[in-house]
Amino acid sequence: MWNQSPDNDISSDLSTLVDDLTHLDLQKSSLCSTITSPTTSVASSAEVDEATTLLNSISSYFSVKPTKYGGRGCFANTDLAQDTIVHECSMPLSSTIARPFRKEVCGSCFEFLHGKTLKFKLMSRKNKQNNSTSASASDCSLALYFCSQPCMDKFIALDIDDLYRESLLNVESLFIKGLNQCQYDLERKKQQEEAETEAELKLENELKQAKDIELFISQKWQEAEINCQLQLSKLKPKQRKNFNNLIYLIPKINENEYMEIKYIIGILFQMYKCDNCENNKLSSVSLSSLELQIFQLLQSSDVEKIRKYPYLLYSYTNKIYKFLKISTLEKVQSYIIPSIIRSIIGKKLTNAYGIWSIDNEPDGNKELFGYSLYSSASFFNHSCNPNLINIEKGAKTIFKLLKNIKKNEELCINYSDSINDGLEIRQKDLKEWFFDCLCERCVEEMNLKNAKK
Ligand SMILES: [Zn+2]
Ligand SMILES: [Zn+2]
């Protein structure tokens, strides 16, 4: 069934809507691309060869190969000594900072100065130019924060035509506008919230009853696309250029969605950069283009995640997607189609690295500042007895061997916070990554447990 959003009065069914769209001559290609789910595409042998070459270019110390238990893993090319640094990533392909920490964690190096507000602020160039009439206190706080001038300069140097800067500030501005809008109109806020909860529950129920979950999810993404295009098609091109006309269409997002949207924008920006800077000799472009190519090879886990947390489907399609579709700057709009956004979200779920306040302290009061994605570091599997550790140094992350290892041995890091806990807690924790840990330690402990029975 068509999933009605609170603000629209469309009552026709999906097939009529598709007909409508054909008449409106909207981007049909983007609708078609959603039909094949990213997980079901079949790779040709040339593509497989290309992928192998790409994966083997990650490190001379290891090769990325299929594992016995499914998926890929990293295997040592030769015997390697403890403390060898087998891989290094100078910066993530994309990263995102949780909203409460946006002024305290450096946007370039993730430095945190005991909760102090960072001094280096990067404001929007747009605001300075058009002297916005609604200049309020909240506009002054519209900035990206850095710990030092070099960190701010680094961000500017990596940007293109202020695209990344303006996109991130746009999310912040619309998030604030969404909050304010509700403050002034409590009745509307209440109505919206009720309608939203109802729609969310309805979708969850439909999902639970769906015979083919994968197909159902693909259909909901398609519907979200059609819904957005219909809403946008009601506006004249001039109206679309002014965000104030769009504010009522933009869904109110929560802080998790805000964080996710900023992560997605980071990847979209990299895509734009690679597509538009082919002749650019900048090393940062070629580096991120390699990471972006590897990113395409990562597995997406959105179906598993939605199966476990059904409410996420509503969040992805009706909030995150809609927010991006309606609010994103023109240059990246062509990337905002269901197949791309779905794959960006799905690949993050098991591949992102947390950005923490204190690193590697087993029982310290760690706080999660955000997360980052390093594609080339996404093939290390988990072990409860890891032989590899990732050490974060600012935005850079290095992978160092904890012990001597033999040729062909798999290189594994620890994913979870419960490495010091017993088998059951560890196994439960690791379910977040959608696998049952069968590392040597787990198998040994399982055997011991069974023997006791
Ligand atoms: Zn910094
Ligand atoms: Zn284990």
Automatic annotation (TrEMBL):
Q: What Pfam families does the record point to?
A: SET
Recorded hits in Gene3D superfamilies, A to Z, give: SET domain
Put simply, this protein is called SET domain-containing protein
UniProt-listed PANTHER family: HISTONE-LYSINE N-METHYLTRANSFERASE SMYD, POTENTIAL PROTEIN LYSINE METHYLTRANSFERASE SET6
Q: What is the lineage of its organism?
A: Eukaryota, Metazoa, Spiralia, Gnathifera, Rotifera
Q: Which domain of life is it from?
A: Eukaryota
Q: Please list the residue ranges annotated as the SET domain.
A: 56-416
- Alphabetized PROSITE patterns for the sequence: SET
Bilayer-crossing regions: none
The Gene Ontology CC terms held by the record are:
nucleus
- Tell me which species this is from: Rotaria sordida
